[in-house]
Amino acid sequence: MSTLETTLTPSSSLEADAKTAANTPASTDANPRKVFVKTYGCQMNVYDSQRMADSLAAEGYVTTETPEDADLVLLNTCHIRERASEKLYSALGRLRKLKDKNAAKGKELTIGVAGCVAQAEGQEILRRAPSVDLVIGPQTYHRLPQALAKVRDGEKVVETEYALEDKFEHLPAPQREVVRKRGVSAFLTVQEGCDKFCTFCVVPYTRGSEVSRSVAQIVAEAEKLVAGGVREITLLGQNVNAWHGLGDDGREWGFGELLYRLAEVPELTRLRYTTSHPRDMDDALINAHRDLDILMPYLHLPVQAGSDRILKAMNRKHKSDDYRRLIERIREARPDMALSGDFIVGFPGETDQDFEDTMQLVRDVKYAQAYSFKYSSRPGTPGADLPDHVDEAVKDERLQRLQALLNEQQYAFQDSLVGKKTSVLIEKPGREEHQMVGRSPWLLPVIIDNNHDQIGDIIDVEIISTGTNSLVAKKLS
Ligand code: SAH
Ligand code: SF4
Ligand code: F3S
């Protein structure tokens, strides 16, 4: 899986760890408290880490790049697969040693665990790792300052009750300078939680039930981001297209309508969203892809499996042909759409034929890019109690075959772009002098030589060749 940075990465490049470059403004305090935030998991966690850093900035904390330099270390964790959550305990082992070393020098280190493992394991984390001072779940981040005050008074704090109040009303917005430092592409969470209960998945238990933010809140945040220099916003949600809310016109809006509204935000030039569920791709959303130039032609639409028997056992509530038809309609609306997906191999009871059905679906759809995982049994989910768990060796073999096919499709997609004229949003300087790196509409990074454009500019280019996970382009004058 690719390393997740605070730039765009499809939601399912999970488990990648990223130090949150959650910049905070210089403190006026000569000796400010320092926080190091480490983010595991999906983009929702990247966004949350930024919001936690914003809320700590309001308390006088500045961020630091190393745990050694920090007074507070926050690990923002992921519970999606066993390997993801075990990462927490190895990180905590290292932090315990650092805490002891600091204590010997008379320096205090507070250790906080946030995110989906915090929500799922709560008190258990304190039992397994007594050096932890604070465990805080994703629904209670706005209470972080109060929780830290209790820790300073010598308490061990576990905050995992679902809050009744709206955390977004209480979390401070980032300052303009902070937005600027985070770059021209930003995340904006519009929806949280999940009511779908796929039988393999922990998300409904770690993130709670579906909650949508209001149109007013979302538009205000988008405008703030744009005022800070952001040109591209990726709307986030565990099921982002399940978003719904009261529109400006007093009617109930779906996600498609929200996109039309956001397309009106002045100076916002690109919109993306992730992750979507096939069942929530309605006509308004498909039409938005036909009508809105601002909406980029990249869609992450996980299907998980191609066998109807397995889809049913997963509780996905759609058949593989429903998905095929949906893809057809989306491609009719937006012929240059790059499709991405997630796949699980080795779900309990998956036979060779079931797996072949997944391979066939992939051949039929033709993905531009996709993520695939071996099924990981998660305690507390219905899948864990199913009979006929698949052998690791069989899972390995299936994953290899699936990934070979997906890689082939990815290269074919990239090759199909050579010779195309398109636009690129400039994001940062390249590795070499006279190089800039930007984003193509299809999310792939683009390297441009001899470029004198500014970060945030959108320029016209022609794609001239492809790299492993990138494109090379020349500017068109
Ligand atoms: N809400 C999104 C996905 C969220 S989780 C959706 O409905 O598609 C991201 C991905 O992790 C999933 O799409 C799935 O492919 C994978 N995943 C989730 N639980 C898993 C498990 N127990 N084992 C292996 N992969 C899993
Ligand atoms: Fe998990 Fe399914 Fe919800 Fe996606 S839709 S978050 S896979 S339960
Ligand atoms: Fe992981 Fe939680 Fe995201 S389990 S994938 S961090 S919603």
Provide the descriptors you would attach to this structure in a database record.
five-stranded mixed barrel; binds S-adenosyl-L-homocysteine; alpha/beta; binds iron/sulfur cluster; 15 helices; OB fold (Dihydrolipoamide Acetyltransferase, E2P); 477 residues; disordered N terminus; binds FE3-S4 cluster; Rossmann fold; 22 strands
Draw up the topology in text.
Layout: E1 18-19, E2 34-39, H1 43-57, E3 62-63, E4 72-77, H2 82-104, E5 110-114, H3 115-121, H4 123-128, E6 134-136, H5 144-152, E7 157-159, H6 167-170, H7 176-182, E8 185-189, E9 191-192, H8 203-206, E10 211-212, H9 215-227, E11 232-236, E12 244-246, E13 252-254, H10 255-262, E14 270-274, H11 283-291, E15 298-300, H12 308-313, H13 320-333, E16 338-345, H14 352-365, E17 369-374, H15 392-417, E18 421-429, E19 435-439, E20 445-449, E21 458-466, E22 471-475
Parallel strand pairs: 2-3, 2-4, 4-5, 5-6, 6-7, 8-11, 11-14, 15-16, 16-17, 20-22
Antiparallel strand pairs: 1-2, 9-10, 12-13, 18-19, 18-21, 19-20, 21-22
Helix pairs in contact: 10-11, 11-13, 14-15
The structure holds S-adenosyl-L-homocysteine, iron/sulfur cluster and FE3-S4 cluster.
S-adenosyl-L-homocysteine binds next to strand 16.
Dominant shape: globular
Could you tell me the strand content as a percent range?
A: 15-25%
Rg of Cα set: 22 Å
Distance between the termini: 37 Å
Q: Pairing-aware structural class of the strands and helices?
A: alpha/beta
Work out the helix count: 15
**CATH 4th-level superfamily of one domain:** Methylthiotransferase, N-terminal domain
Mean pLDDT: 92
* CATH topology group of one domain: Rossmann fold
Q: Low-confidence stretches at least 5 residues in length (pLDDT < 50)?
A: 1-19, 21-27
CATH class of one domain: Alpha Beta
